[in-house]
UniProtKB/TrEMBL annotation:
Residues 66-144 form the GHMP kinase N-terminal domain. SUPFAM superfamilies: GHMP Kinase, C-terminal domain, Ribosomal protein S5 domain 2-like. This is 4-diphosphocytidyl-2-C-methyl-D-erythritol kinase. Residues 199-272 form the GHMP kinase C-terminal domain. It comes from Megamonas funiformis.
Length: 289
């Protein structure tokens, strides 16, 4: 049996450089893994038993639609492995939250099956499969602090963010990533683009104030007008003394950077009373490879 913890991510920056001919958007974003995680365990089965998945994902009715199932099928088919596999999922990352919950589960499947079947595949081979299923899965394989370009699948390791306390607030609405990207053209002329160079410089200097100053996400301009609660959550987090607060990915989760774990606990206990939301105190996580 193999067990993998699949970390969620936040976007320290998210910039869109343009629309591509394949319909996706060209992005440039600094991504950071965090220690909020799903846990997946993998056990070999006989080939005729196929892929059996235990554990529900809200809104995903059929197991075959789960990214976990799709990733397992892709792995077994690609490497012509004549075996079944049983996968147990403990879901902790909120779904459709901007935290890459589905992508990180898929990445965990590639890592888990690589170990279970003793394939010794390198990160490049795993990333090749990842790209076929989703833009964020390659980052979830790598983890840590990365600059992601292309549609998100081209990764460059950059200076790691110092270990930092983060508070996550996920209001009880689900946001479709596809919908957010689809509506970006309506706001693109009025957005303030994040400064990725300034972010990278601050990361090199381990300057948390600088990192806070350089946070920026152009998708806020699409998601916040539709879900104004996100702006209220950002404001409250600042009022309660967070160093900075911003929406992650396509939203709706807001993450706040806070100076220590006591402050994080204080903020969690207060903000839980203000909003109908899932609230977590977490830390930044290190890379997987
Ligand atoms: C916005 C981000 C930021 O990290 O994260 P989430 O909010 O989903 O966590 C990502 O770009 C989400 O990546 P991911 O969730 O893997 O997206 P995919 O499954 O590849 O694509 C979902 C849909 O989003 C759109 N899409 C995605 C990535 C991209 N660079 N341009 C796009 O236009 C496409 O319309 C696609 O149909
Ligand atoms: N294992 C999974 N975990 C979460 N979502 C999944 C999974 N498999 C498929 N999905 C689908 O992917 C969509 C995006 O989910 P998720 O990755 O959690 O969003 P985001 O990247 O915005 O955090 C969900 O609404 C759901 O329909």
């Amino acid at each position: 049996m193999v067990t993998i913890n699949a970390n969620a991510k936040i976007n320290l920056t998210l910039d869109i450089l343009g629309k591509r001919t394949d319909g996706y958007h060209e992005v440039s974003m600094v991504m950071q893994s965090i220690n909020l995680f799903d846990t997946l365990t993998f056990t070999k089965l006989d080939a005729e038993e196929g892929i059996i998945l235990h554990g529900d994902v809200k809104g995903v009715a059929k197991p075959e639609d789960n990214l976990i199932y799709k990733a397992a099928k892709l792995f077994l088919d690609t490497y012509k492995i004549n075996s079944g596999v049983e996968i147990n999922l403990i879901k902790r990352i909120p779904v459709a939250a901007g935290l890459a919950g589905g992508s990180t589960d898929a990445a965990a499947v590639f890592r888990g099956l690589n170990e279970l079947f003793e394939m010794n595949l390198g990160i490049n081979a795993l990333c090749k499969m990842a790209e076929q299923l989703g833009s964020d899965i390659s980052f979830c394989l790598m983890g840590g602090t990365m600059l992601a370009t292309g549609r998100g699948e081209i990764l460059q390791e950059i200076s790691a963010m110092p270990k930092t306390n983060i508070v996550l607030v996920k209001p009880k609405v689900d946001v479709s990533t596809a919908w957010v990207y689809k509506n970006y053209h309506k706001v693109q002329d009025s957005v303030i683009h994040p400064d990725n160079k300034a972010m990278r410089k601050s990361l090199i200097k381990k300057d948390l104030q600088g990192i806070c100053k350089a946070l920026g996400n152009v998708l806020e301009y699409v998601t916040i007008p539709e879900y104004p609660e996100i702006a209220k959550i950002k404001q409250k987090l600042s009022d309660y003394g967070a160093m900075a607060a911003m929406m992650s990915g396509s939203g709706p989760t807001v993450f706040a950077i806070v100076e220590d774990s006591q402050k994080a606990k204080d903020i969690v206990s207060k903000i839980q009373l203000d909003f109908d939301a899932d609230v977590f105190a977490v830390e930044t996580a290190e890379k997987n490879f």
